[in-house]
Fold this sequence. Notes:
The protein is mainly α. The chain folds into two domains: about 15-165, no CATH class; about 170-380, Clc chloride channel (Orthogonal Bundle), CATH 1.10.3080.10. It has helices spanning about 15-45, 55-75, 95-110, 120-135, 140-165, 180-210, 215-240, 260-280, 290-305, 315-330, 335-345, 355-365, 375-380. Helix 1 packs across helix 5. It starts with 14 loop residues before the first helix and ends with a helix.
Amino acid sequence: xxxxxxxxxxxxxxxxxxxxxxxxxxxxxxxxxxxxxxxxxxxxxxxxxxxxxxxxxxxxxxxxxxxxxxxxxxxxxxxxxxxxxxxxxxxxxxxxxxxxxxxxxxxxxxxxxxxxxxxxxxxxxxxxxxxxxxxxxxxxxxxxxxxxxxxxxxxxxxxxxxxxxxxxxxxxxxxxxxxxxxxxxxxxxxxxxxxxxxxxxxxxxxxxxxxxxxxxxxxxxxxxxxxxxxxxxxxxxxxxxxxxxxxxxxxxxxxxxxxxxxxxxxxxxxxxxxxxxxxxxxxxxxxxxxxxxxxxxxxxxxxxxxxxxxxxxxxxxxxxxxxxxxxxxxxxxxxxxxxxxxxxxxxxxxxxxxxxxxxxxxxxxxxxxxxxxxxxxxxxxx
Length: 382
């Protein structure tokens, strides 16, 4: 029986915890992004500068070492992460689990594996949300899920803050007005970019079947040799830097227009896509989106330089990036449209947004037949 003196239990709302998790996640996520980028720059830019041309033994040695480290970390430290082929998953992550996850990601990314930093940020935000939910004693699963999600979302925002502040994704040569002929070309470019990513994902899915659900040293080392061979092939046949192949490559997108030879662009696209595929499926840790952006941008550039009176370089690269991102993970129509608008504006100006929207619609409309090659057990456990 309830009397006027009986205390009434009030449901605690996690709003404050959500805000705190988002803010802390943003700060630590941005710090994680800076650390990852600084490490990659040290290993793949600063150190190789002493030789001029990056020697083969260095490329092979760093990548093989990364493979061995990932195997040791996943086997002996912790294996709470998930396969990049499955996209990005947000789930509670304890500090102990985070150690194994972030070490495997750092070993992969600094080692030149063709995966992105986005998972490092998501993991950082997830552990922030998990700790805050526990400290503030939100034990209900739904409340904890909201707090963890807020931490991860805050960390993901760092991915936009970094490139926007640095201008690392902004392309030169954007038109002063919307060019209607680019809208038709956007359809062609979107199909090419989507196809390039889809083929890479099929190869990755086949490799993931071979690797199985746990870390496989032979597969990891073999994949590292394929990545190294791809980078060295581009350096040997084109004279361009191995940076056009190793690492996720988003920082090199603005350098792509310096490639004017059709054969050079085609080789970069082929070897980058191959390195991306084996990175996705071999058991490394990292994100799938940033390398896909590079593959899409290169596919767009190839269309621009290969097709007579074809699309402009800036429009083609923007459309290629939009299509590649949408081809990487299933998403609802509104999200695809928003991505088209945001990427079009960030990489160019408002004049490229219409072409980016066309690319988004085409990429979203193309059936995701590559996903049928990806077994659920690989997505969940590998």
